[in-house]
Every structure is written in C-alpha cells, then in structure tokens.
Amino acid sequence: MFRRNNRPTPDAIEVIIGPRATYTGTLRSDTSIRVDGVVESGLLQTAANVILTETAQVACEIHARTVSIRGRFNGIIYADRAELLAGCHVSGALYVNSFLLDDGALLDGELHMQSANEEPTPPRPQPGALPIIPILSGPYGREQSR
Asked: How many domains does the chain have?
C-alpha cells in the first residue's frame, strides 16, 4: 500500500495544459492528463492518470486512477492512488486506496484511505460554507467597550 515500487504503468498522455495556459471548467478524457500550467477551478476526470508537474498550480476536483503531484494543488482528489512527490504542496482532501508521500512533499489537509470496493466518502463542508460564530473578547467572554 505504501511502497514506492508499486507504481502504475505509464500510458499515453494526450491532454496537456501547457505552462503558459490557464484553464477553468470540466475536462474529461479517456487518456492521461498532464498539467504544466494553471487550473483555476472545475473538474479533471479520467480513467487514466493525472500528472501535475513542478510548474502546475491547480485548484479543482480530480477523479482519476492515479494522481501524481510535483506542483501546487488545492482541492479534492478521488483516486485509486495518490503520489505526493518531492517539492509538491497539497491542500484539501484525498480519498484514495493507495498513498505515497515523498520526502520534501507537503500535505496540508485530509487523507482518507479506503479499500478498493468501498464507495467514496463525500467531502465535509468547507469552512466558508458554515455559519460564522462570533467570538467575544475580554474577561469572561464579554465584549470589551472602547
């Protein structure tokens, strides 16, 4: 489950978001997707692999067999396997069956390990979606007067 030598077999990469490209929206493909540029929002969905290179800055939802990350990612990943490689910065939630965390990779979020036959767990509400609760300051929780 956590072994480095248990890597997926490579397949053809037919979809590339280049280093000077910015994409927003839904992208579905039967083949692997490589991102060198920016994905501002939306969905990347493939039955194959998603590769985020060192220059990638991605903020979206990803559904794929394997997701390999070297760049920056913020969002939700649903995959059979996630690989957080040296130099990456990942924020958000990962719902995976297998997970690799390289030395020098940063994960700031939630990791949900699942078995292959388990249904994906829906994500919890984002902090911005919850009501704001006022915090009172001063002694004993009373507001301070000015």
From this structure: 1
Cα separation, 34 vs 46, whole angstroms: 11
Model pLDDT for residues 59-110, shown as the tens digit of each residue: 999 999 999 999 999 999 999 999 999 999 999 999 999 999 999 999 999 9
Hey, what are 39's tokens? 């994905």
Q: Is residue 3 part of a domain?
A: no
pTM for this structure?
Answer: 0.74
Taking a C-beta distance cutoff of 8 angstroms, is the pair 55, 70 a contact? no
**Nearest-angstrom CA–CA distance, 6 and 98:** 10
Give every CB contact of residue 145 below 8 A, 6+ residues apart in sequence. Answer: none
Query: Is residue 142 in a domain?
Result: no
91 occurs within a structural domain = yes
Domain residues for 62? 13-116
